[in-house]
Design brief:
By secondary structure, the protein is an alpha/beta fold. It is built from 11 helices and 8 strands. Strands 1-2-3-4-5-6-7-8 form an 8-stranded parallel beta barrel, surrounded by 8 helices. The protein starts with a strand and ends with a helix. The model has no long low-confidence stretch (mean pLDDT 96).
């Protein structure tokens, strides 16, 4: 299973003081050294954490691959086309949210048309496209109809309920199986922690996890490399 580390919240610490440290690029290099298979960043329209310069610096410095999360905003898509990351994950985005609250709405014709246009622009440049969606079979079918090679299942419901119920885990398992049956690569992420990652990492059909906040939080106590290695060990044990 691939482990991609999201370093957005390294930038969150920096932006709290509008200074020049810590640098997400430096954190990304430490993540790679500790065993990360890729680096994820979300370039939001409001630039609340990751900045344009961060994306360019990380893309130029890392030795693995860059997964750039973005909304269907022309300005941000243009930056992706200029940087040409290995993968773009299209996500929903609302200015008032603290963090991403759910998956893309593929039911709306207007939203689907905009997503389709973004997919076509990125794919034409050879960029692999993934859609961040809820673990719902109908939504997975709609993603498959859009022709994307990958989806990322939103694990937020699982992250909020795993202590009290296994319903969300069962939903993730069924969604992952359905995605693979449609020939789509299945990724997962959002709210995964050291405490709850094992059952998700054990789902055979999921081939990539994107984890950020928990690892960055742990790194404050033990350092980035140790934090990444600890997560890497938990995921490997689940497989």
């Amino acid at each position: 299973m691939r482990l991609y580390i999201n370093v957005d919240h390294v930038a969150t610490v920096r932006q709290a003081r509008r200074t020049d440290e810590p640098q997400p690029r430096d954190a990304a290099l430490l993540c790679e050294r500790a065993g990360a298979d890729g680096i994820t960043v979300h370039l939001r329209e409001d630039r609340r954490h990751i900045q344009d310069s961060d994306v360019r610096a990380i893309a130029a410095a890392i030795h693995t691959v860059l997964n750039l999360e973005l909304a269907t905003v022309d300005e941000i898509v243009d930056i992706a086309l200029d940087i040409n990351p290995h993968q773009v994950t299209i996500v929903p985005e609302k200015r008032e949210e603290i963090t991403t609250e759910g998956g893309l709405d593929l039911r709306s014709d207007r939203a689907s048309a905009r997503i389709r246009n973004t997919i076509e622009r990125l794919s034409a440049r050879g960029i692999r496209v993934s859609l961040f969606i809820d673990p719902n079979e109908d939504t997975i079918d709609r993603a498959a109809d859009l022709g994307v090679p990958a989806i990322e299942l939103h694990t937020g419901d699982y992250a909020h309920t795993w202590r009290n119920s296994d319903g969300a885990l069962g939903q993730l398992k069924r969604a992952a199986q359905h995605g693979r049956s449609r020939g789509i690569a299945v990724h997962a992420g959002h709210g995964l922690t050291y405490a709850n990652v094992h059952p998700v990492a054990a789902i055979a059909e999921i081939e990539e996890l994107n984890i950020g906040h928990s690892i960055v939080s742990r790194s404050v106590m033990v350092g980035m490399e140790t934090a990444v290695r600890e997560m890497r060990e938990l995921i490997d044990a689940a497989r």
